[in-house]
Amino acid sequence: MADKLSVQHLLGIKNLVPDDIKLIFETADTFKDVINRPIKKVPSMRDVTVANIFFENSTRTRLSFELAEKRLSADVVNFSASSSSVSKGETLIDTVNNILAMKVDMVVMRHPKPGAALFLSKHIRASVINAGDGTHEHPTQALLDAFSIREKLGRVEGVNVVIVGDILHSRVALSNILCLKMLGAHVKVCGPPTLIPRHIESLGVTVEHNLKKALEWCDVANMLRIQSERQEIRYFPSIREYTMQYGLDRNVLDSIDKQIVIMHPGPINRGVEVSSSVADSPNSIILDQVENGVAIRMAVLYLLAQTRGFEQ
């Protein structure tokens, strides 16, 4: 296996090769040990400056990246576009060039437009990590999800994973499909026909519209939230009807003749896609995903810094 990433930016899962993912996982294993020690910091990125630039609201992802950066002893600059010059008409390039003038080495960016991270990587010298670009990709979420499956089941290859919910608007779904398929998992998507993209089978997945059938097939169910903020029209009659058909509660879980692992990228709409009794059950690894998110992001930051010669 290679000892360095094949890329200088993390723009999407489709830009990686399987050896990259294996290296990220093995590095995350080491960092997971670090964050469970009494002293949780390492000097691996001392004197490296990372800018977190979020053009969309985010709490969990931004805090996870910030914690990962601080655990690695990086200098951190946080930039929230909603309260910045962007609202006065400043462009993406203007904003980032101003931040790079402050000698920033790496940029973590979330942006509502698909392809924004790729555009940025072509115009600046710093390493770019895509923290979500519109409905396109969210690579670190997919990595931490696959890492969590590997941790729980001991492998990803051969595991049956169903992704349930708003596949059409979810960057998590696309990145997860690409990552899981690259690692040899079998992937099915489940949801209302209006929320399943056309031609999704071309990605090597199968489609199931019946939740119970999908759950009986799978080893792992990744429950996505409804992306109401990205829906310009109504894709189903009501939230209540969606929950009746695609919500996962204790009764549905108990009706399946096996144990399955429950995941959710968050934030959870309790009582919509999953009930509290399921989210807080022994089947759930949702809190493990949160912890693993910090370790995976530490690994990505460290390995990208290594490709640029930044690390200590």
Report on the structure:
- This protein is α/β, with parallel strands linked by helices.
- A five-stranded parallel sheet has the order 7-6-5-8-9. Strands 2-1-3-4 form a four-stranded parallel sheet.
- The chain has helices spanning 18-35, 60-71, 92-100, 116-121, 139-153, 171-182, 211-217, 239-246, 250-254, 276-279, 286-308; strands at 49-54, 75-80, 106-111, 127-133, 160-164, 186-190, 206-208, 220-223, 261-263.
- It is globular, with a radius of gyration of 19 Å.
- Helix 2 links the parallel strand 1 (49-54) and strand 2.
- Residues 228-233 have low confidence and may be disordered.
Summarize it.
The chain is of the alpha/beta class and 312 residues long. Helix content is 38%, strand content 14%. It is built from 11 helices and 9 strands.
Secondary structure: elements and pairs:
Elements: H1 18-35, E1 49-54, H2 60-71, E2 75-80, H3 92-100, E3 106-111, H4 116-121, E4 127-133, H5 139-153, E5 160-164, H6 171-182, E6 186-190, E7 206-208, H7 211-217, E8 220-223, H8 239-246, H9 250-254, E9 261-263, H10 276-279, H11 286-308
Parallel strand pairs: 1-2, 1-3, 3-4, 5-6, 5-8, 6-7, 8-9
Helix pairs in contact: 1-11, 2-11, 5-6, 5-11
Strand order of the largest sheet: 7-6-5-8-9
- The helix/strand class is alpha/beta
Poorly predicted parts? 228-233
Task: Identify the overall geometry.
Answer: globular
Number of strands: 9
How much is the radius of gyration in Å?
19 Å
Cα(first) to Cα(last) distance is 22 Å
* Biggest sheet descriptor: 5 strands, parallel
Average pLDDT confidence is 90
